[in-house]
Design a protein that fits this description.
The protein has 439 residues and is an alpha/beta fold. It is 38% helix and 18% strand. It has an 8-stranded mixed beta sheet. A 6-stranded mixed beta sheet has the order 13-12-14-15-16-18. It has a two-stranded antiparallel ribbon with strand order 1-2. Helix 9 links the parallel strand 9 and strand 10. Helix 2 packs across helix 3, helix 4 packs across helix 6 and helix 11 runs parallel beside helix 12. The longest helix is centred in the middle third of the chain and has 16 residues. The protein is globular, with a radius of gyration of 23 Å.
Length: 439
């Protein structure tokens, strides 16, 4: 079926206003078409105003309802919001007392009375505790959780129980969890999750049941490159201890039943629009307003989200994107993958008009473009910034957005030892911030 055929089929299906449409994946699976074809059909109908999309919730029939939202924000709400932003970025640490009230008044440009009311409100909610007259700390509930001193760290593995790292963020996360555990006088028990069999394995490849891990009082779980997440969370749902989840999937895939449970905390490191917004603001400060966004992975939600973030800060963006792949790992499954990858990149960048800068979807793309430019196969970009801040970005002096893995590990372990104590609202998707590292 073509894009036009899908549009006609959807229009003739008698959906009612506000009714949710089948997901792109469901339509693709039932029709045998590619997800790209279905996605383009939905985008076309949305551009015509016949359907509308909600980030993380899918597509709906009819025009998007207009909602009037008050923009008024009282001073205590503003200060609490800024505190949350500093919590996301790691500027405020769970392992140290908050700055003095006087210092926070200066940081947040507010009065002494407002600052005290904000902190007293968080104290009343059970988020902060006070020692003395003016110093506040995050509540430490670890002694009430368990007398044991061990947490689980669950990451994907192969049939032998070995963890083969395919990205620097994974290895960094593992290291940082160990650092945070040590800081809290805890030990770490690592389990591999072998997805093909839905089994947990130790380092020797022995099968381990979660119910046999009664000595552990919490688990930090990575979902990176775990594809059937429902199978994994069906097992985690049977546990009774707190679980901190590094979520590496689109927001709409979060198991809703678990999101509402206080013992589950879902942390977002790479998805959503915030990386694009931060890079966009970084470019605007440099006086760059016309940019090109280069991505050979535009089938993925994270690539499309980064593009939206760039646009939402007011940049003029030329889209040099290809939606035939969702990630670098898609290319690995193809013959002559590297040659195909380079050909797609060369095709994309040759269409770029004069702009102030190129924003590329990750460091792999940036490094490959630098190599192609050095070989004379493409023109050198005027300026380039990327995402991931990997080792290769330092080797090639590529400015890049750094995802806040350290804060992810810190807040994950804190959730395990003090579940429910957080600046986030109940049920929030815990989005962590980051920054651009210039080289």
């Amino acid at each position: 079926m073509t894009i036009e055929d899908f549009c006609k089929w959807i229009e003739s299906s008698n959906f009612k206003d506000g009714e949710r449409l089948p997901s792109v994946r469901e339509v693709a699976a039932s029709s045998g078409a590619s997800t790209f074809t279905v996605f383009r059909a939905y985008k076309k109908l949305a551009s015509q105003g016949k359907i509308y999309g909600e980030h993380g919730n899918g597509y709906f029939w009819g025009a998007k309802p207009k909602i009037e939202v008050s923009t008024h924000e009282c001073e205590t709400e503003r200060v609490e919001r800024l505190l949350l932003e500093d919590w996301k970025s790691g500027k405020i640490s769970v392992n140290r007392p908050l700055p003095s009230i006087k210092d926070m008044c200066q940081s947040y440009a507010t009065t002494l009375g407002t600052m005290r009311r904000t902190l007293e409100s968080l104290h009343a909610k059970g988020t902060l505790e006070r020692k003395g007259q003016g110093r506040y700390y995050f509540v430490d509930a670890r002694l009430a959780v368990s007398k044991t001193k061990e947490i689980l760290l669950i990451m994907r593995c192969n049939p032998n129980g070995d963890f083969n790292c395919l990205g620097e963020r994974e290895l960094s996360f593992m290291r940082k969890v160990y650092v945070e555990a040590h800081r809290n006088n805890l030990s770490v028990k690592v389990l591999g999750y072998f997805e093909d069999e839905g089994a947990f394995l130790d380092a020797s490849g022995n099968r381990i049941k979660l119910e046999d891990c009664r000595g552990c009082f919490g688990a930090a779980v990575s979902t990176m490159l775990v594809f059937n997440i429902n199978k994994l969370f069906a097992k985690l749902a049977t546990t009774r201890f707190p679980v901190a989840v590094w979520w590496e999937h689109p927001l709409y895939d979060i198991p809703r039943a678990l999101k509402k449970e206080k013992r589950f905390a879902f942390f977002n490191l790479a998805f959503g629009e915030f990386p694009g917004r931060i890079v966009g603001r970084f470019l605007k400060k440099k006086g760059m307003t016309r940019i090109a966004f280069v991505s050979p992975y535009h089938m993925s939600m994270w690539s499309r989200d980064r593009l939206k973030g760039l646009k939402n800060v007011g940049l003029e963006v030329f889209e040099a994107t290809d939606a035939s792949h969702a990630s670098p790992y898609d290319f690995m499954q193809e013959p002559r993958a590297h040659a195909r990858y380079r050909q797609i990149l060369m095709t994309l960048v040759k269409k770029i008009p004069p702009v102030d800068a190129w924003v590329v979807s990750n460091d792999r793309v940036g490094v490959e473009l630098i190599s192609l430019a050095n070989q004379g196969k493409i023109l050198h970009p005027p300026y380039m910034v990327s995402f991931d801040n990997s080792t290769d970005s330092y080797r090639n002096r590529l400015d890049s957005f750094e995802f806040n893995v350290e804060t992810l590990a810190e807040q994950s372990v804190f959730h395990l030892v003090s579940p429910g104590i957080t600046l986030y609202k109940t049920g929030d998707f815990r989005e962590l911030s980051g920054h651009v590292v210039e080289k």
